[in-house]
């Protein structure tokens, strides 16, 4: 049976096409060899479980490795120490029975099997701590404990107590045998979980996992890693794809987010190949096939996008920060202690770049734009105009961008000519995107060139049926500034191999002359609008 691209659950190298994560695994194993305790915190569907299983396979050559998961555990497990300890013993017992864990003496296995059914009196964290010491002391191999979905238990006191017990054993490991390494994996950062780890009555709180070493390994898939995955696929199907070109496209749009890479590949392989526009795999594994898959991805309700949408509903401060960043072009300084920023990083929305935050990848950015604009479009007349006039912008299947610019200029002047400067400066780009979106929706894509996304300038890149268009949006700051804008736009045209570009300047001078002009610069043509 040939392999498939997988986006649900654990990826297995014998069943699924996977990018090479050898470098990431080596960096984690180095920390394990040094006896470090870790917290691997990444956003949803970032390959944490797959990484842990691959790590387990590597570590088993040297260590006795227990990989347990807290996913799906009911709250009853965390209602008392006895209930939690019985479940923990049960998880270890299952590992003894079903996994190849070497070096654990038979009497320890028997004791573990007995303890999973003991009553309340005999089962508490203290006796569990003693058992761990006996097990680690008697084992022929050093023991590593991997806990997946650890943050599922983050709100329960008994789990905080369990981590506090492991922390205490770590600090005393020169005297009492304990695990060689413990790794917690989840979305939320367990290093920042607060719990009472002092004796009863001394109401001092601290993190039970502040012993964790810094984990800086890059879990994003590299362009080379993606290329290796495509090469394996190509060996099976001989599509003739340009592996490097497609790997670069996948990395450019996803920034290596594992789920997004695999999802796009899966869409190309299973939904794009064989349809009317792309009859076979050779046709699908092209730039046009990639863009077709991208359009599907941006409109589907997959589990990752649903999770991100729910976070925006649950945390209004997070949503406002992202709206300021995207719609208003405001620079948001990266301040680790800021709650909104911490949540945005933890949930995978943003990354830190040069002291400021940026949306993690083009796909997230476009989807956020689409969501924010959809909320506003229902109450904005200019979106309705664009939807009603959509047919006049599509000529023989091609987007007439000149006509889009002319019509936008006319509608903007009519609708917003009397609004104050503050409103227009804050909302100019939003109004343009509200007009553009219903015109290309379902057939084309757009994204914002991140380095130009400021309150002064934005470059919008539009993909429509294999054709690209570049529109520079900027605030009018005089003729000299406009000339610099033309030079910047020409550089982008050269980079994309285009001869025609577009510029929309929002001019707040009372005596401005709104309209559209054609400017010829050598062999390039700029369509410049002033609104």
How many domains make up the 3D coordinates?
A: 3
CATH class of the largest domain: Alpha Beta
The main sheet comes to:
6 strands, mixed
Query: Mean pLDDT, nearest integer?
Result: 88
CATH architecture assignment name of the largest domain: 3-Layer(aba) Sandwich
Rg, please? 28 Å
Helix fraction bin: 40-55%
* Biggest sheet: strand arrangement: 11-12-13-14-16-15
**Beta-strand proportion:** 15-25%
Poorly predicted ranges: 195-205
Secondary structure: number of strands: 16
Number of helices: 19
Q: Tell me the structural class.
A: alpha/beta
Principal-axes geometry comes out as elongated
Give the CATH topology of the largest domain. Rossmann fold
Distance between the termini: 60 Å
Describe it.
This protein is of the alpha/beta class and 531 residues long. The protein has three domains: 22-206, Rossmann fold (3-Layer(aba) Sandwich), CATH 3.40.50; 223-300; 391-530, no CATH class. The chain has 19 helices and 16 strands. It has helices at residues 22-33, 48-59, 81-98, 106-115, 125-138, 157-171, 223-237, 243-254, 258-272, 281-284, 287-299, 303-314, 316-326, 339-346, 362-377, 381-388, 401-416, 421-440, 479-496, and strands at 38-41, 64-69, 143-148, 181-186, 195-196, 205-206, 350-353, 356-359, 394-395, 398-399, 444-448, 457-464, 467-475, 500-506, 515-521, 524-530. A six-stranded mixed beta sheet has the order 11-12-13-14-16-15, with helices on both faces. A hairpin with an 8-residue loop joins strand 11 and strand 12 (457-464). Helix 3 (81-98) packs across helix 4 (106-115) and helix 9 (258-272) crosses helix 11 (287-299). The longest helix has 20 residues, at 421-440. The protein is elongated and about 85 Å long. The model is unreliable at 195-205 (pLDDT under 50).
């Amino acid at each position: 049976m040939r392999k498939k691209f997988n986006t649900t659950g654990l990826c297995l190298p014998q069943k699924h096409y996977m990018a090479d994560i050898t470098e990431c695994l080596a960096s984690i194993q180095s920390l394990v060899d040094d006896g470090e305790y870790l917290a691997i915190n990444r956003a949803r569907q970032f390959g944490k479980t797959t990484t842990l299983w691959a790590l387990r396979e590597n570590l088993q050559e040297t260590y006795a490795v227990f990989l347990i998961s807290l996913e799906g555990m009911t709250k009853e497990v965390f209602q008392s120490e006895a209930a939690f300890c019985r479940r923990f013993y049960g998880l270890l017992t299952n590992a003894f029975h079903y996994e190849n864990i070497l070096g654990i003496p038979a009497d320890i296995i028997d004791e573990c099997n007995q303890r999973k059914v003991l009553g309340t009196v005999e089962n508490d964290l203290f006796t569990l701590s003693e058992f761990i010491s006996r097990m680690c002391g008697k084992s022929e191999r050093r023991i590593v404990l991997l806990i997946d979905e650890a943050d599922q238990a983050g709100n329960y006191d008994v789990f905080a107590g369990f981590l506090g017990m492991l922390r205490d054993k770590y600090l005393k490991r020169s005297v009492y045998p304990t695990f060689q390494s413990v790794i917690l994996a989840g979305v939320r950062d367990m290093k920042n979980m607060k719990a009472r780890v002092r004796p009863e009555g001394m109401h001092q709180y601290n993190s039970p996992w502040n012993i964790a070493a810094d984990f800086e390994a890059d879990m994003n898939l590299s362009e080379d890693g993606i290329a290796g995955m495509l090469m394996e696929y190509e060996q099976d199907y001989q599509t003739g794809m340009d592996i490097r070109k497609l790997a670069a496209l996948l990395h450019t749009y996803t920034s290596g987010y594992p789920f997004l890479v695999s999802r796009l590949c899966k869409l190309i392989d299973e939904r794009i190949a064989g349809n009317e526009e792309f009859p076979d795999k050779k046709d699908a594994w092209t730039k046009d096939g990639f863009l077709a898959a991208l359009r599907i991805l941006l409109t589907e309700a997959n589990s990752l996008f649903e999770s991100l949408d729910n976070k925006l509903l649950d945390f209004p401060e997070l949503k406002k920060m992202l709206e300021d960043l995207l719609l208003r072009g405001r620079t948001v300084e990266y301040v680790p202690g800021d709650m909104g920023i911490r949540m945005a990083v933890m949930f995978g929305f943003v990354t830190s770049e040069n002291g400021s935050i940026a949306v993690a990848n083009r796909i997230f950015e476009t989807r956020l734009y689409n969501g924010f604009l959809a909320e506003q479009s229902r109450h904005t007349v200019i979106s309705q105009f664009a939807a009603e006039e959509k047919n006049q912008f599509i000529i023989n299947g091609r987007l007439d961008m000149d006509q889009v610019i002319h019509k936008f200029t006319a509608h903007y002047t009519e609708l917003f000519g009397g609004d104050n400067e503050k409103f227009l400066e804050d909302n100019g780009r939003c109004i343009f995107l509200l007009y553009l979106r219903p015109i290309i929706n379902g057939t084309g894509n757009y994204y914002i060139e991140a380095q130009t996304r400021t309150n002064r300038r934005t470059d919008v890149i539009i993909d429509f049926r294999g054709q690209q268009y570049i529109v520079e949006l900027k605030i009018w700051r005089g003729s000299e500034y406009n000339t610099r804008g033309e030079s910047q736009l020409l550089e982008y045209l050269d980079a994309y191999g285009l001869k025609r570009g577009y510029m929309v300047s929002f001019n707040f001078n009372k005596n401005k002359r709104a309209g559209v002009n054609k400017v010829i610069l050598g062999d390039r043509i700029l369509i410049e609008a002033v609104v």
